[in-house]
Amino acid sequence: MNEKMDRRKKYTRMVLKESLIELLRKKPMSLITVKEICELADINRSTFYSHYTDVFDLLHSIEDEIVADMIAYLNKYNVTKEEESLYITEKLLEYVALNQEVCKTLISENGDIQFQKRVMKVAQQFLVENWVEVSALDEELYEYLSTFVISGCIHVIKEWLERGMDKSPKEMAKMINTFANKGLASLRSS
C-alpha cells in the first residue's frame, strides 16, 4: 500500500511539474496560476497544495532537482585536467539534451532569472575552487574569469537549444572547451 502511495505522489508531482513547464513555454511565471496548472494536470487544487505551497514552490522544486543533478555531475570529475573537463562538459550537455524541454524553458525569457544565477553560482564556485588550487593567480581574478566563461557557456547552450540541438553534445563540448581554454586564438589557428 505504501509503495502505491509513493507512486501516486511521484506521478502527481511529475504531472504538476510538466504542466508548469508547458505553461512557462507560453507565458511568464508571473501570469501562471495554481488553477491553470491544476486544470492542465487534471489535479485538484487541494492535491496541489498538499505537495507545494504555491507556483513558485513548484518551480523551485524543478530547479532544485536540476541544480542537485549538476552538482552531482561536477563532483565526479576533476576539471583541471583538460580531458576530464571535456568529458564533464559533454556529460552535462547530454543531461541538457535529455531534459531539453525543461532546460530550454527554465533559461528562456519566461523562466526564472534567479535559476540562471543559481546555476552560474554553482558552476563558478566549483571552477574557482578547482582552478585556484592549481594556479598562482589570485581568487578574485578567477572569479571574473569564471563569470566570463560560465556566462558564455550558458548563452552557447541557449543558442544550441534554440537551434534544435543541431550539433551533438560531444561536438558542443569540444566547441565550448576550445572557446573556454583558447578563446579567440582558437579561431585564428583554424
UniProtKB/TrEMBL annotation:
Q: Name one GO molecular function term.
A: DNA binding
Keyword flag DNA-binding: yes
Give the annotated DNA-binding region, as residue ranges. Answer: 33-52
Sorted alphabetically, the keyword list is:
DNA-binding, Repressor
**Any single Pfam family the record assigns to this protein:** TetR_C_8
- InterPro entries from the entry? Homeodomain-like_sf (IPR009057), HTH-type_Tx_Regulator (IPR050624), HTH_TetR (IPR001647), TetR_C_Firmicutes (IPR039532)
Which residues does the UniProt record annotate as the domain HTH tetR-type? 10-70
What name is this protein filed under?
TetR family transcriptional regulator
